[in-house]
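Side project, low priority. Logging it here so it doesn't get lost.
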Amino acid sequence: MAFWWALIVIAFALVICKFLLMLIPSNVPSIDVDASDVIDDGHPKESSFIYIPSRRQTDKVQCYEPATVKYLGYFPALKPDEVKEQVALVRKAQNVWAKSSFKQRRQFLRVLLKYIIEHQDLICKISSRDTGKTMVDASMGEIMTTCEKITWLLSEGERWLKPEYRSCGRSMLHKTAKVEFHPLGVVGAIVSWNYPFHNLFNPVLAAVFSGNGIVVKVSEHASWSGCFYVRILQSALAAVGAPENLVEVITGFAETGEALVSSVDKVIFVGSPGVGRMIMRKAADTLIPVTLELGGKDPFIVCEDVDVPHVAQVAVRAVLQSSGQNCAGAERFYVHENIYPAFVAAVVKIVKSVTAGPPQLGKYDMGAICLQDHSERLQNLINDALDKGAEIVGRGSVRFINEGAVDHYFPPTVIVNVNHQMKLMQEEAFGPIMPIMKFSSDEEAIKLANDSKYGLGCAVFSGSQRRARFIASQLHCGVAAINDFASNYMCQSLPFGGVKDSGFGRFAGVEGLRACCLVKSVVEDRWWPLVKTKIPKPIQYPVMENGFEFQQSLVEALYGLNVWDRLRALINVVKMLTDHNSSANSKRSD
C-alpha cells in the first residue's frame, strides 16, 4: 500500500511542478511588425473612397471592405515567371532551414504565439475589414484555431516527426525497421478567403515546422489582409535566425495559381471542387502530391430526445458560420418529427433576434458577405425552393448599411417544407440559410444525410450518446461531432478533410503534419557488425539443385500455422545448410 501512495505523491508532485513551470515566463523575444499602412494611431486606417467592384480581371488585385465597399488598395497579379522567381528564392532558403533544429522551430512558434496573443484586436480588425465578418467570429475562427495549432505543434510536433520504429517481421528479426520524415522542399498553398489569417497560418505552420519552405497564394478576395499577415510570419522567422524568403505570399488570379502548382513539390488547396479538379490536372504534369479541401454540405441531425433550446442555439451558430464570411458549416438540418414544431419555433425566435450590419460601425451578430454577387445566388436558391413548395418562416434583420454595400448582406433565413429535389438541399450555399427537414426514424435520417455529393462533416444530437455515435458512424464523411458542432477543428491533434466532392487528403493532426514530409522507410542490421546479412548458400549463384526445396522449407518454418510443421521445416533448413557445409569441407580436404 505504501508503494502505491508513494507513486500517487510523485505523480501529484510532477503535475504541480509542470503547472509551476507554466507560470515562469519563457525567454521569448517580442517582434515589431510594421502595420503603419493598415492602422493609424492604433485605429484602422479609413478610406472615404467607395470602390465599385469589377468582374474584369486586370494586372492588379483590387481590395475593398465588403461591409462598407470602402477601397483598401491593390496588389500585383503575378505572372508565371514572377511566381517561379519567388519559388526559387524560397527553395534556396529551404535548403538551409531543412537543417534547423526542432528547438529553433519551437522558438519560432513561441514568438508567433506571443505576438498573436498581444495583438488579437489588430488581427481580428484586419480580418473583419477584409472579409466582412464580426470581431467575435474572427476571434473564434482565426485566433483560437491558430493558437490551438501552435500549442499542439509545441507539445507534440517533434514527437510525430522523429523516426518511428516499426515491427520488422519474422524473416527480418535481425534487422531494425523505421520510418523517417524528411522535408519535401517547397510547399505551395492556394487558400480561400473565408479565414484569411488562419488559412494562411495553417499550411505555413505545418510546412515550416516540418522543415519546408512555403509559397502561399492568398485569395484575390482577401489579399489585403494576407499581405499584412505574412509580415508576422516573416518577422517571427527573422527573430529566430531563419533564412530570408522561407515564407512568401503571392497575389493574383488563376494564372498565378497555375504557375505555383507547376513549380512546387506539394500543393495544398482550399476552395471549390471545380478549381480543385483543375489543380489536380495541373499537378499531374509534375506528379506532385495534392491535398484538397473543397467545402461541404454538412448535415445537422437532431433526434427527439434532446434539449431543444440548447440545440437550437448551436444550430443557429452553425448556420451563421456558413454565412458567406466563415466556414462551410451546417447547411442541411434534419429534425425528428416529434420535436419538429418546437425546434422550428425555437430557431425562428433566435434568428429573428439576429442583426447583420457593418462590423466596424457597431456590435452586430453577423457581418457582410465577402463575395460580390453571392447574395444574388443565395436568393436564387431560395426562389427555387419556394417554387417547389418550401416556406420561409423567419428572418433576421440588416441595419445601417451603405447604399453601395447592399448586395453584400443577406439576412439569416429559416425555411421549412424542403426536400432533396430542391437545389438548396443539394448545392453548397455558403450562406446564412437554414433549411429544416423532418425525419421519422434514424434509418431515414442516415439515408437523407448521405444523399449528397459532399462528405466533409456532420453533427448528430441525441440524449443517448450511443445512439448519436451510431448514426454518425453510418455517415459518409471525414469529420463527425457528437452533440456539438465543429468542435473537431479545435482538437488540432485530429486530421481534417472529407470525401467525395469535399476532396481528399488531410491537414491538421499527425496526418496533416506528415503530409508535408517525404516518408522514407529505412531497414538496417540490428547487431552490426557482429551479425551481418548473408545470402544462404543453397540460393547463392549459381543456385544449388535443392535451392527451391530450401526456400519452401524456409517459408514454412517462418509462416506455418502449426508449430510442429514449423519445427520440422526448420530442421530441414538447418539440415540443408549443414549438409552443404559438410560437402564444401570435404571438397577442400580432397
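Brief comment: The chain has 17 helices and 24 strands.
Revisit when time allows.
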